Amino acid sequence: MSREKTELENKLIENGHEMQVRVYYEDTDFSGVVYHSNYLKYMERSRTEWLRHLEIFHTDLAEDDSAFAIHRMTLKFGPPAVIDDLLTVRTVLQKLTGARSFLRQDVLRIDENGDEIMLCGADVEVAFINHGGGAKRFPDDLRAKLGG
Fold this sequence. Notes:
Layout: E1 10-13, E2 16-22, H1 36-53, H2 58-63, E3 66-77, E4 86-96, E5 100-110, E6 116-130, H3 140-146
Antiparallel strand pairs: 1-2, 2-4, 3-6, 4-5, 5-6
């Protein structure tokens, strides 16, 4: 648990993005640990912030009748986060195909030795879709921004 006053980082990294989140009381369950579904919220925020850094905005996609939708996600949980923990959410693009992106997302806590402890990890398959729900190929400009 860190009591230091800290500015939360939000930055691009090679092939992805990292952002920090602080665990608040509202994130925890009756036992004082982060409720499991909140890790998904942290990951969603990180994916959105990554896109914003790449100047890809959900509102612009909606105007083009497009969106991103989670197609598949495999999770693995490690030790829990607790109130006041400072966490790092890392999103890394693994592969980009015609209408799908494959990401690795990890929610990490950095211990006092600087070692990363994986609290929740996910392999994420994201489909690019039209608003009717069908898959849609990435336009060239979007593909270029994503690094494909």
